[in-house]
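Model: Ready when you are.
Researcher: Fold this.
Model:
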Amino acid sequence: NAISPGGFTSAKRPHPENFEQRYSDRTALKRMGRDEVDLKGAILYLASSASDYITGQNIVVDGGFTIFK
């Protein structure tokens, strides 16, 4: 199994000017992922017994960026 994150904001590594707005405009949720928040659910799920019968899957956590491709 794998987790494929989309664009995430980070105070430690800022993006170039206007990147976050341009990226957010292309996602269904109209925002970038938030560090320390948006990946936790997918990580917890794959680490728990709730995913025991899941195999060979890629969980895309990108705020809906890839649905428009």
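Researcher: Now this one.
Model:
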Amino acid sequence: MGIQLTLGTRVAASVRFAVCLVLILGASSVFSQDSISAPDSALSASSTPVAFVYVSHGTAGNANQISGYAAAANGKLTPIAGSPFKASVTSMVTNGKYLFASTKSGIYVAAFSIESNGALRWERSTDVVHGCSTSPGGSGPLVLDRTGSSLYDLYWNGEECSYDDYQSFSIDKSTAGLTYLGGNEEVFWGSPLSFMANNVFAYGAICDPYSPPPGVTIQLYGFRRNSNGALSYLNTTPPLPKAEAGFGYCPFLTAADNANHLAVFLQPYKVEDLNVPTQLATYTVDAHGNLTTASTSSNMPTTLINNVYDMKMSPSGKLLAVGGVEGLQVFHFNGASPATHYTGLLNNVLITQFFWDNDNHLYAISPSAGKLFVYTVAPSSVSQAPGSPYNITSPQNVIVQTLSVLVQ
């Protein structure tokens, strides 16, 4: 995929490619408690990091592993003792005690204990194939609820079964075991879910305006999280902002703040390929999970990211990062009011995924450049952290385990 694609092709392909990025085909997963020798610059015992950063990536010999780093208060990264860790995984999430990761085979979710110095120790792997033994497909992006007690994955059930499934699992905090709670098949190739601050409602987006009926085309969708952690589909049809005459909006990604507001990335589409910029909508979520918006084509900010891969809200809920083919850009997020421009492009390379910590650091990976970027992004200043960018072979996914308490 590239910026030379026509808009029609780009809209149809963008979300599929972004989701497929974490379904990288490869050999069966291999986990080991043995690790490669620590670099000379490994973290010393006296250091006090603010976050641990983990990147799943390839090697020159095509093996897969996780490289771990300790982030200092200024954003500088130091390799964790024992890193890199042998693990053939893609999408990763952390809940403070464990790192969970989809295996490259797509059949398992692996669990690793996070040691006090950030080192990873494999605990167990759970088979997450449910409902389609003839064509198992693969596990996609992983998401945790805000408490870290429930895990969800968007599971592709293969061409023979031809449906996708948001699966719910409870997490045993003492063993890292996953218990299957059920699935929801209402969504086809949707984006990862964003949980609201109340941890009750979660929302995602999907758009393929060129799919033939009766396929799902354009949809903002939501789920209610039940008391046991299982998801129930919200049978609602949230409104999309009214577009200018001649085109409509495709919602691709969502990001929730720490109140009751939701950012939605919108990509315009129409029959002809015209140069219409992408925009950011803002929604408010009520006590019943209904979405309302005052966003219009005239009050929504435009973005410099036309081919989006990721969008993340800062822990404070005041900054919103958007990344994709064109690079990485940050906006001020203003609750129910429209988001406003903050930065231009922080870089101009393909950015596929990024995460924030609680100390205003943004960690972003670029597979094409083979880089891990670290930025310090405060509400009034932006700078690249010392040592950034870091060279890393074929980065695929990144996750951040914050260690410090968020200061509002």
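Researcher: Key takeaway?
Model: The chain is about 5% helix and 45% strand.
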